Amino acid sequence: MLNNTKKLGGALAALLALSLCVSSFSMPRSALADQSAVPAATVGAVNIPDGATTSNLLPGQPPLFVWSPPSDAPAKGAVLCLHELGMHSGVFTDLGKRLASKGYVVYAMDERGFGGWEKLKGSEARMSISRILGDIKEAAQALHKKHDNLPVFLLGEAMGGTLVLKAAADNKGLIQGVISSTPGGEHFNTGRNYMTVCKHLLTAPSKPFPMGKSLIASATPRQDEQDYLQNEAKVRINLTPKELMACQFFMYQARGFARQIKNTPVMIVQGNKDGETKPVSSQHIYDSLNTSDKKIMMIPEGDHYVYEGRHVDDVAMQDTLSWLDSHLPTK
Q1: CA dist., res. 3 & res. 20, Å (int)
Q2: What is the DSSP track for 244-292?
Q3: For residue 299, what are the contacts with CB-CB under 8 A and spacing of at least 6?
Q4: Which pLDDT value is given to residue 41?
Q5: Which helix H or strand E contains 9, and what residues bound it?
Q6: Using the 8-state DSSP alphabet, how is residue 209 labeled?
Q7: Which CATH number fits domain 2-24+47-326: 3.40.50.1820, 3.40.50.300, 2.70.40.10, 3.40.1390.10?
């Protein structure tokens, strides 16, 4: 009986998600090319993470954080980072500093609805998968212009991991490599989570509730990481049912996005101690990739947050650097 209830709840939530959230994902391509810019005057001051500067790479939008190599070391490549649902660009501080020290210029952007976007008004500032994908394309194009002759890599985690797969599938030739961490939509405790979200979806679909706190607790067994992410000021613990379902609906399509990638190098990354995303989900996405240049990196001590948070696992860091270095253009 309990299993049937869970299945019913999951099916109901999924059906509601389609009607409530498809508009935020399936915006026509013409709309992506005609983004309504947020006036630059509305972008307020930001707290800059350790070692970073800011860049108005996308005019009228919240500034991106940038970690640059030492002034006496020319950059080897540019890396654009996309965060998990509820997070923000500042969670890539440790990753950004360490990649920059090895010769990469690292950019981290706030996805619409999160980070610096929370200070802005209007529909353009709310979470929209389609608009975020448009922002990624625009940012990659701007990076190619700003850093002439440098390869541009995308790195994303969880929802960000699915975003970078979709961006690579849609923009062939624009992206020189993709690192996608925990991108799969197959999660632990799916029935329980669907029932929780569905209850709020039926009564107040646009009203935030603190689902993020329990998701963080499930995602990592590290208490210091839980404490950091649950209490970090710009991490959004309170998420709306529509945002949660839009994210889940989008991530369910990750295998389809992977099938569309035929030439771009891709590395899938998964922590074995992830309590939110099932490791087999990342394996399924890896198997779905049509590019011959693909790799899957399983992190024995890693969890859901391989690249975000206080400290990037040293093994993951070394393997990530090796993969990036191996995909630099030959001179």
Answers
A1: 25
A2: HHHHHHHHTTHHHHHHT-SSS-EEEEEETT-SSB-HHHHHHHHHH---S
A3: 269, 270, 271, 272, 306, 313, 315, 316
A4: 32
A5: helix 2-25
A6: B
A7: 3.40.50.1820
Tokens of 130: 């389609």
Residues 85-95 pLDDT 10s: 999 999 999 99
Q: pTM for the complete prediction?
A: 0.87
The rounded radius of gyration (Å) of the Cα atoms in the chain is 19
Give the whole-angstrom CA distance, residue 228 versus residue 156.
20
Mean of all residue pLDDT scores within the chain: 87
- What is the mean predicted confidence (pLDDT) over 57-67? 96
> Facing residues of 105 across strands?
78
Length, in residues, of the chain: 331
Query: Residue ranges of the domains in the chain?
Result: 2-24+47-326
Which letter, b or e, does each residue of 145-172 get, where b requires 16 or more Cβ atoms within 10 Å of its Cβ?
eeeeebbbbbbbbbbbbbbbbbbbbbbe
Confidence of residue 134 (pLDDT cuts 50, 70, 90): very high
User: What is the pLDDT, as a whole number, of residue 46?
Assistant: 61
* Alpha carbon distance 191, 217 (integer Å): 17
* 2 vs 251, more confident: 251
> 3-state class of 114 per DSSP?
coil
